[in-house]
Design brief:
Blueprint (H helix, E strand, L loop, with lengths): L2 H30 L29 E7 L13 H5 L7 H4 L23 E4 L4 E4 L3 H4 L5 E8 L5 H10 L9 H9 L9 E5 L25 E3 L17 H22 L2 H24 L6 H7 L9 H13 L4 E6 L8 H25 L6 E6 L3 E2 L16 E2 L3 E6 L7 E3 L1 E2 L6 E3 L2 E2 H11 L9 E3 L2 E3 L15
Parallel strand pairs: 1-7, 1-8, 4-12, 4-15, 5-6, 5-7
Antiparallel strand pairs: 2-3, 4-11, 8-11, 9-10, 13-14, 16-17
Helix pairs in contact: 7-8, 10-11
């Protein structure tokens, strides 16, 4: 085939594609009210066979996901194991380990001594649930929490584990959970992003990557937008000196005309996605400063969240900001708090982590409830895996560490239709294996989507010849977690 024939074939193909798209757009405009220029309303995108929207009545409208990066120890927080105190220092029995693999950090140890938690537990809430003394504020909210003690995952190292929780795959490149919700449900506030990310400032620990809130193969307008604890919360949002808002508007209008020509010529939907992002940035110049301004919050608010909430970039300040974004109908707000990775020095380090997060987490739940937002806001708390019941390194009377443990760990949900006061799943007396009602990562994701009115098997996007979804080819909704 010569170059002329190839160009003719491409031209005929483009003509057919344009013709098909034109007829399709005409039909969609009648069904969904597309604009006069044929562009679909916000949230409607090619690739979803069912049409964008809810599949059943939703209990939740939005999500606040409090991601505790590094893997909080369930044995010092929500999964009380007196047997570990009784047998502290004894070897992990082979009958309990069952030959399961360990990480390279503790797999070489000649000794795997059981380590009992060095903190007291007390019973709280309607189910008289054991909760650590490290979480006194959270303990007071047990009537709101749907606590799952039987989470499990296949991932044993941080990067694949956090990627698995947030994208449904251990391999990087898939859309994040917030992006799926942006794609599936669209926005209830045209002036703010559907998906906002807040990271605790100046925290060490396992690194975080922008791909964790990326849109993967979905259109880029669905990616998360990180708000930073700086004078300009969003990078490059502020106009340069001498540029007026009217000037910015004229520039955008001119660029939009060029973009429409480019979109017609290339057929690339990403052109319109980028234009949509530019328009969002224009609107965010007004909406973001207002949403992030906490100067008018009363003293009672800071008493609720803790005085750290006055300091931008702290976990407490981000929890307060998450409430303000929820009030403004942002679909998905994700907080990241690093440092939950205590391979050694666990007693002191986890005490610090809990002190930084406990009051603000409970304060967020109280604040949402007082404002009538908790009923339709799903709050999720948890990390990427749990910690081992044996000590990594040398066990002493006052110090120990715990390695990664994917076989059982704890998470919780609250509000948004989750069954408050519920404790689901149990682990064995050693806290090493699940004894009852296992919940896989995909099960948890499927249940969260269900609360948002989404059938996880139907929220799909065609990419590279097959339809992908957040839960990949697995996942079951857990009815007992739903109120």
């Amino acid at each position: 085939m010569n170059d002329h024939d190839l160009l003719n074939r491409i031209s005929r193909r483009r003509f057919l594609q344009r013709g098909t798209m034109g007829l399709g757009m005409l039909a969609m405009s009648r069904l969904f009210g597309a604009s006069a220029d044929g562009r679909l309303p916000r949230g409607l995108s090619e690739g979803t066979p069912h049409g964008i929207g809810m599949h059943h009545a939703a209990k939740a409208k939005r999500v606040i996901y409090l991601f505790q990066s590094g893997g909080p120890s369930q044995l010092e927080t929500f999964d009380h194991k007196p047997l570990l105190q009784e047998r502290n220092g004894e070897q992990l029995p082979d009958s309990v380990r069952k030959g399961q693999r360990l990480t390279g950090m503790s797999g070489h140890q000649t000794s795997l001594p059981l380590a009992g938690a060095q903190f007291k537990f007390e019973k709280h809430g309607p189910k008289q649930t054991w909760v650590s003394e490290l979480l006194p504020y959270t303990a007071q909210k047990m009537d709101k929490l749907c606590l799952v003690r039987s989470m499990h995952t296949e991932a044993i190292n941080h990067d694949p584990a956090i990627t698995f929780f947030l994208t449904g795959s251990q391999i990087a490149g898939r859309p994040s959970m917030g992006s799926w919700l942006s794609y599936g449900l669209g926005s209830d506030n045209k002036d703010l992003p559907d998906f906002v990310v807040l990271v605790t400032k100046n925290k060490g620990g396992q690194p975080l990557y922008a791909r964790l809130w990326g849109s993967g193969f979905l259109p880029s307008l669905h990616q998360g937008v990180q708000f930073r604890a700086e004078a300009n919360p969003v990078l490059f949002l502020k106009d340069l000196p001498g540029i007026q808002r009217e000037d910015r508007r004229r520039v955008l209008d001119a660029v939009d005309q060029l973009a429409q020509v480019a979109a017609e010529r290339s057929g690339d939907p990403e052109v319109n996605s980028r234009m949509a992002q530019a328009e969002m940035a224009y609107r965010m110049q007004m909406s973001v400063p207002e949403a992030t301004d906490i100067s008018k919050e009363p003293d009672s608010t800071f008493e609720l969240y803790g005085e750290d909430a006055r300091t931008p970039g702290t976990y407490a300040a981000n929890c307060l900001l998450a409430r303000r974004l929820a009030e403004r109908d942002v679909r998905f707000v994700q907080l990241f708090h690093q440092g939950w990775d205590q391979h050694g020095g666990l007693p002191g380090a986890i005490r610090t982590q809990c002190k930084e997060t406990d009051q603000a987490t409970a304060g967020l739940l109280t604040d949402l409830e007082q404002r009538g937002l908790l009923d339709d806001t799903l709050v999720i708390w948890g990390g990427e895996f749990g910690r081992t019941n044996y000590c990594q390194g040398h066990l002493t009377p006052t110090n120990y560490g715990r390695d990664h443990h994917p076989r059982c760990f704890s998470m919780w949900m609250a509000g948004g239709g989750a069954r408050g006061g519920q404790v689901y799943g149990t682990t064995d007396d050693f806290g090493y294996n699940i004894a009852e009602n296992p919940v896989h990562v995909h099960d948890f994701q499927a249940t969260a989507l269900h609360l948002l009115g989404i059938d996880h098997t139907r929220l799909t996007y065609k990419h590279q010849g097959r339809r992908f979804r957040l839960t990949d080819v697995a996942g079951e909704v857990i009815p007992d977690l739903i109120g």
